[in-house]
Write a structure and sequence with these properties.
- By secondary structure, the protein is mainly α.
- The chain is built from six helices and no strands.
- Helix 2 runs antiparallel to helix 3, helix 3 packs antiparallel against helix 6 and helix 5 (101-118) crosses helix 6 (121-144).
- The two termini are 26 Å apart.
- It comes from Streptomyces kasugaensis.
- Pfam families: DUF456 (PF04306).
- This is DUF456 domain-containing protein.
C-alpha cells in the first residue's frame, strides 16, 4: 500500500468517526470499510486478524447500541408513540431553526408530550432526562465501538 492510499484510508476512518456524531451517517460501518480497504491492500495475516477484530467490535457495538437504550427506555416507561412524535418534532425543528432546532424540537417535544401524559413538571422533566440518558448511551456506545 503506497502513501496516498494510506492517507485515503485514514481519511475514510476519520469520516467514519465524525459520522457517529451526525445522524444518518453510518460511522462505524464507514470505519470498518476503511479497515477492510487497508486489510485487502495489505494482505498480511496481521491485517486480516485486525479486520476480524474490527468486525467483531462492529457487530458487538451494533447489538449493544440497540439493546442498552431499549432496556433504559423500557425502565422509563415512555411510550414509543411519544418517542416517534418527539423525533418528528426534532425534524421539524431542524427545518425551522437550522442545526440547533433539531435538539430543541426533539427535547422540547418530548418534554411537552411527557408533561401532557404525566401531568406534572417534575415527573415530565425526570422522564425527559431518562430518555435523553438512554439516547446518549446509544451515541456513546456507537462512538466507542
Amino acid at each position: 500500500m503506497n502513501g496516498w492510499q494510506l492517507i485515503a484510508v485514514g481519511l475514510v476512518m476519520l469520516l467514519g468517526l465524525l459520522g457517529v456524531l451526525i445522524p444518518g451517517i453510518p460511522g462505524p460501518l464507514i470505519v470498518w470499510a476503511g479497515v477492510l480497504w487497508w486489510a485487502t491492500a495489505g494482505r498480511s495475516s496481521l491485517a486480516w486478524q485486525i479486520l476480524i477484530g474490527a468486525t467483531l467490535v462492529l457487530l458487538l457495538g451494533q447489538a449493544l447500541k440497540w439493546l442498552l437504550p431499549a432496556r433504559d427506555l423500557r425502565a422509563a416507561s415512555t411510550p414509543y408513540r411519544t418517542l416517534f412524535t418527539a423525533g418528528a418534532a426534532g425534524i421539524v425543528g431542524f427545518f425551522v431553526i437550522p442545526v440547533i432546532g433539531c435538539p430543541l424540537g426533539g427535547v422540547g417535544g418530548l418534554y411537552l408530550l411527557e408533561r401532557d401524559r404525566l401531568g406534572s413538571h417534575g415527573d415530565a422533566w425526570a422522564a425527559t432526562r431518562r430518555v435523553m440518558r438512554a439516547i446518549g448511551l446509544s451515541v456513546l456506545v456507537e462512538q466507542f465501538a
